[in-house]
Amino acid sequence: MKTVSYFIEGMSCAACSIRLESVLSEADGVKSVNISLTENNAIIIFDETVTSETELKNIISNIGYKAIDNTYDSDSADRKQKIKTLFSKAFLSFILTLPLTTDVSVYLKIILASVVQFYIGKVFYSDALKGLRSKAINMSFMVALSTTCAYLYSLYWALKGDLSHIYFDSSAIVITMVLTGRLIEAKVNEGSQSVLEALLKRAPKTACRIDENGENIVAVEDIILRDILIVKSGEKIPLDGIIVSGDACVDESMLSGESLPVEKEVGDKVFSGTINTQGVFHMEVTSTTDDTILSEIISAVSLSLSDKGEIQRITDRIVGYFCPAVILIAVITAIIWYVWIDPKNPYLALNNFMSVIVVACPCALGIAAPISISAGIGLAAKRGIIIKGGQHIEKLSQITSVAFDKTGTLTNGKFEITDILVMNDSSPEELILNAAIAEKHSCHPLAEAVIRYFGEDPDKIPEPDSVTTVTGKGIIAKIKSNEIVIGNPNFAREHGADKEDLEKILSHLSNEIKTSLIILKNNIIQGAIFCQDSIRKESYSAIELLESMGIEFYMLTGDNEIVAEAISKELGIKEYYAGVLPQGKAEIVKKKSHDGHLSAMVGDGINDAIPLSEADIGFGIGGHTDIACEAADIIIMDGDVSKVPACISIGKATTKNVYQNLFFSCIYNVVAIGIAACGLLNPAVAAISMSLSSISVVSNAKRMERFKL
User: Which domains does the chain have, with CATH numbers?
Assistant: First the structure.
């Protein structure tokens, strides 16, 4: 399966995006399609053996739209050009409409009205045609239909010489007002800068590379791995890398949401898009443009903005039937007025027909959910929280239970070796060497502690002949015909460890908050390594905030009962489960869901893939490089566990905003259509009302930018 992202040119309303999504979904080989009207973006997952990008672009082109390979620059340029075009058309339409409201020559009125209707208003005809080609009735079709009826009605009576039935001003005013409304809506949207656009601006286009010719400015696309770059004070870091000389203070707020600069020195990692606020350093490039943390963030946010939750899918289905239903209501309204209410006044029937069609606003209904969800995802992204899909926003607002992994989540996950217990004629040197060889390629925090304690460059540690990792238990390694087993007490017991030796090790742990790694050589215990971790300072506030929100929380750990009890007591966690393997953690989370909870799981992604996947919402807590953790639905970039309750608050606020928009859109359409059908609204006022309804929805979503956690 392949995933592609396209900028879609030509979508004008919710009906356009819904129909385009429907047509693409029916294409052979297409697994899923998500189209965001607010971002003009399409994410398509398809089978390359069945269809191709060329075929997908042809399908999009055949129904009147254009697909452009998404560099995320397109959206910004298109918005600016759209505003310029709308302004010029709305202004010209206003100038030409003014004489139509005065007593000028009928022939001049015909000329001016024709220019407004067919030159300035041709955008409505072209958009309507696109919709019809894809078997959809959109907002442009409704504007074109209503204004064309008024124009032709007026033209008929003008050519017959009956000036009392000429209403060219009505059709022209509607076109002017709709264009003006679209202009205002586009300006409001421009004020709320796309989160993707903001992220993209973080990435420098050039970098200063050092080679045999000295310092040279080059495009970042031309830089390869292991190139040496120089970054000066005030400059953005162009790519991911490691500092090889110098030091600096770096603004990593893009990743963490924290404004305080982070001190960096030789050996520290630096990331594309972050800013060197002080100092000069040389860095070795470790990731090219497509593999940086920033590019992964942009990709994840793009997918999340195009992904739809259940509320939005239901709304889309309603919008699909909205325009045909409104046209039917408008026709019935015209018939009732012409046949029963005022048969002698066909203009009233036409006027009310136009008002019903023009006042209805499927766009407000269509964007009610996506624009709020986009605002919520953007708010989270600014705080270093990557939400991977719109459906997760809805679930966040309903979470009632949160499970925390211990190591690397509630604790720092950076173990330090405190004790070494040697047994059965082994030596500390042999014990540490065997442990280092077995753990050489492991990314577990305990393995990292062993490698650090060993003290050598990891590349100089001998390679094991073979390694088997048993998730949640330990490692089995073959080293020069010897079998080395390293893991927890239960794993040692499974491999024939002597009971008395095990009891001696466990007694060493008595009343101490330490984790043990037991090493066996050919089923005989060599000894044990004891490690200690520390609690994250953010864990205290995370637990306090969840408690204040009335959300249940508990801790899961594979560690021993003594450590689990001590950590839980320190943090004020009343419910905990010790000695639990990943599958066991998943079962506990699953049981909570069965008990009526909507469950979240918070883990560091190392051994938590199973429980993270089992939870309704999985939070990935870790370093900046964990953006690609597939098991997690939400990534907290800087590993600050206190952002879990903050993220839940964002979900609640966003969902509330969605429901506010939906309520307003539904009430507006019911009331406005009713008023128009009763003949209490003229077409010009109807056009203004329709535009204001969309603007109100956008403005309400913009309030999310001021949401305080």
Answer: 2-70 (3.30.70.100), 203-287 (2.70.150.10), 385-410+535-653 (3.40.50.1000), 412-534 (3.40.1110.10)
Q: Which residues are catalytic?
A: 405
What tokens were used for 245? Answer: 């000389």
Distance between CA 402 and CA 641 in Å, rounded?
12
Long-range contacts of 515-518 (CB under 8 A, 24+ apart): 515/415, 515/446, 515/559, 515/560, 515/563, 516/488, 516/489, 516/560, 517/435, 517/446, 517/450, 517/474, 517/486, 517/487, 517/488, 518/486, 518/487, 518/488, 518/489, 518/491, 518/492
Q: Are 37 and 17 in contact (CB under 8 A)?
A: yes
* Rounded Cα distance, 44 and 3, in Å: 6
362: exposed, middle or buried (Cβ count in 10 Å: 0-12, 13-18, 19+): buried
Q: Pairing mode, if any, of strands 416-422 and 599-603?
A: unpaired
Q: What does DSSP say about strands 576-577 and 552-556: parallel, antiparallel, or unpaired? A: parallel
Instruction: Give DSSP secondary structure letters for 586-621.
Output: HHHHHHHHHTT--EEEEE-SSS-HHHHHHSSEEEEE
How many whole angstroms separate alpha carbon 126 and alpha carbon 128?
5
Strands in 576-577's sheet, in edge-to-edge order, are 385-387, 634-636, 617-621, 599-603, 401-405, 552-556, 576-577
Q: What is the largest CA-CA distance in the chain?
A: 117
504-526 per-position pLDDT tens digit: 888 877 666 788 899 999 999 99
Q: Which helix (H) or strand (E) holds 264?
A: strand 262-264
Low-confidence ranges of the chain (pLDDT < 50): 192-193, 624-625, 628
- At 192 the pLDDT is 46
